[in-house]
Amino acid sequence: MEKPQGSIYEQGQVLLINKPRDWTSFDAVRKIRNLVKTKKVGHAGTLDPLATGLLIICTGKFTKRINEFMAQQKEYTGTFTLGAVTPTFDLESEPGDFKDISQLKPEMIMEAAAKLTGELLQVPPIHSAIKKNGKRAYELARQGKQIAMEPRKVTVSEFEITGIDLPLVGFRVVCSTGTYIRSLAQDIGVLLGTGAYLSSLCRTRIGAFTLEGALTMEEAQKLINENLDGIKTDN
Q: What is the pLDDT of residues 1-24, one digit of tens each?
């Protein structure tokens, strides 16, 4: 008897996707859902549109494991830019409030990163998907409404400065779930007195899953089509 199309995805699969820049996490989920022809598809942890890197997408019965994956430790690499700030803490909005950074020395930047390592009370960006009064915070922020974001306890296990070419600073961060790397960039700018914003971000690890094992969207489409073709011809 011919197996129903898409059955392996209904039974449950974990797909590791290298999310492209300018895609939302939901864009990736929608693309996979259309390919696997299974309604139950979800991701384990949002990446902002300007971020790239590892996105775990679960299908079918494996969507029950999403919270398990979301709770795991994350690792990121990227850059922040010193000497200015943006309303969104990244390049989704225009930089402003420019400051002189000529006095900065590498040891000052590394000392600031060290202060942002360990258990922290972090204030999430107002331009985030956190719900306030039943609405997403970013929706209220875009309407010009004043929003008070409550600090959240997060853990930054490692905050390594990997390169300095002012105004750009490269970093690697290992952190708990719920940590906003945009807020870390904002906070390091406050500590240095120069302002800072996140200028690039890549998620390289979630728990034991790494970016090296992830598929591009094109590779994922090819793999899914091959699996579905195999189901159609398997009697």
A: 344 444 688 888 999 999 999 999
Question: pLDDT per residue over 42-98, tens digit each?
Answer: 999 889 999 999 999 999 999 999 999 999 999 999 999 999 999 989 999 999 999
- Separation between Cα atoms, residue 157 and residue 171, nearest integer Å: 13
Domain ranges within the chain, ordered by starting residue = 7-71+208-233, 74-206
Q: Which helix (H) or strand (E) is 79 found in, with range? A: strand 74-82
CA 172 – CA 97 distance, rounded (Å): 26
Given 22, 48, 187, 234, which residue is catalytic? 48
Q: Give catalytic status of residue 48 as yes or no.
A: yes
Structural domain 74-206, CATH architecture: 2-Layer Sandwich (3.30)
CATH superfamily assigned to domain 7-71+208-233: Pseudouridine synthase (3.30.2350.10)
